[in-house]
Amino acid sequence: MIYTYLGPAGTFTEAALLQVPEARDSERIPAANVNAALELVRTGEADAAMVPIENSVEGGVSTTLDAIATGEPLQIMREALVTISFVLAVRSNIDTIDQIRSVATHGHAWAQCRGWAESNMPNAEFIPASSTAAGALGLLEDETSHDAAICSPLVAEERGLKVLRTSIEDNAGAVTRFVLVARPGPIPAPTGVDKSTVILPLSEDRPGALMDILEQFVVRGVNLSRIESRPTGEGMGKYFFSVDVDGHLAQERVADALSGLHRVCPNLRFLGSYPAAEGLSSSVDAHNSDAAFSKAQDWVSGLTARLATS
Ligand SMILES: O=C(O)C(=O)Cc1ccccc1
């Protein structure tokens, strides 16, 4: 297996990939951005890509949500959670925070440290970087565009960067969720604690269109753990929903909800069922259990078997 990830080495995404035991001893290709990583998978140059999808402070990572919702189909094979803490690293000629005029980092890292940055270095300009590690490595270049970088403690240590402050995140304990994405293939077997992701384009702009979608989950007792709307890019007012649910395709209530969704939203895209990285809180009522579905199906089959043939 060849793995790719949002690089360069030292990103939080690499930390997420290293949680995958098989990836530790495999070839790992750093990609310049999320789209480049997914493209390596789509073309077959890599077998799977680890990419950030959501964090507990800033919400969804739009680039990833959009890239896996469209184009050549991809499948989520697993998820990984990383608790994120940031440091402020600087060029060697900077000694105090007041000297910092510009700070480079990934947009989601900036969002998680914005409060600290605005209070402690109000005059520093934010320079968007393709990743926290890319911003950090820029500090080592002669012709660098920035004085400081917000990055992981690990990359600062590994690259011998000067660190002026540690733990500068506004919310201690913020978690980012990453997904390992591959070309569509076998769906991982249920573990008992699983999630499924589905993309639901709103085909019609009419009252109740979202209700029709949500109803499919509600009546089968399927809990949603994430729902986000994203513009399709096809014009104002055109949206798709990206939804995570508790449960696996192998469970009747999830499969039945997908079947209902296919009727109200025929262009839906199933992105996979995979083990949840942490325990899920939702419980299943007896009438939504596999046994209840199976009994109900048997009962209806018994009735349809009695249908007159002519
Ligand atoms: O830039 C990185 O290191 C990443 O892996 C993306 C990211 C940025 C900020 C929080 C979580 C992930």
TrEMBL record:
TM region positions: none
GO BP field: L-phenylalanine biosynthetic process
Pathway: Amino-acid biosynthesis; L-phenylalanine biosynthesis; phenylpyruvate from prephenate: step 1/1
Site (Essential for prephenate dehydratase activity): 176
PROSITE patterns (alphabetical): ACT, PREPHENATE_DEHYDR_2, PREPHENATE_DEHYDR_3
Domain ACT: 198-275
All copies of domain Prephenate dehydratase, residue ranges: 2-183
Enzyme class, spelled out: lyase
Keyword DNA repair attached: no
E.C. number(s) listed in UniProt: 4.2.1.51
Pfam family, one: PDT
Domain of life: Bacteria
Key word Amino-acid biosynthesis present: yes
Keywords, ordered alphabetically: Amino-acid biosynthesis, Aromatic amino acid biosynthesis, Lyase, Phenylalanine biosynthesis
GO molecular function: prephenate dehydratase activity
Catalytic activity, as annotated: prephenate + H(+) = 3-phenylpyruvate + CO2 + H2O
GO CC annotation terms, alphabetical: cytoplasm
InterPro entries: ACT-like_dom_sf, ACT_dom, Chor_mutase/pphenate_deHydtase, Preph_deHydtase, Preph_deHydtase_CS
PANTHER family per UniProt: PREPHENATE DEHYDRATASE P PROTEIN, PREPHENATE DEHYDRATASE-RELATED
Protein name per UniProt: Prephenate dehydratase
Source organism of this protein record: Paeniglutamicibacter gangotriensis Lz1y
Gene: pheA_1
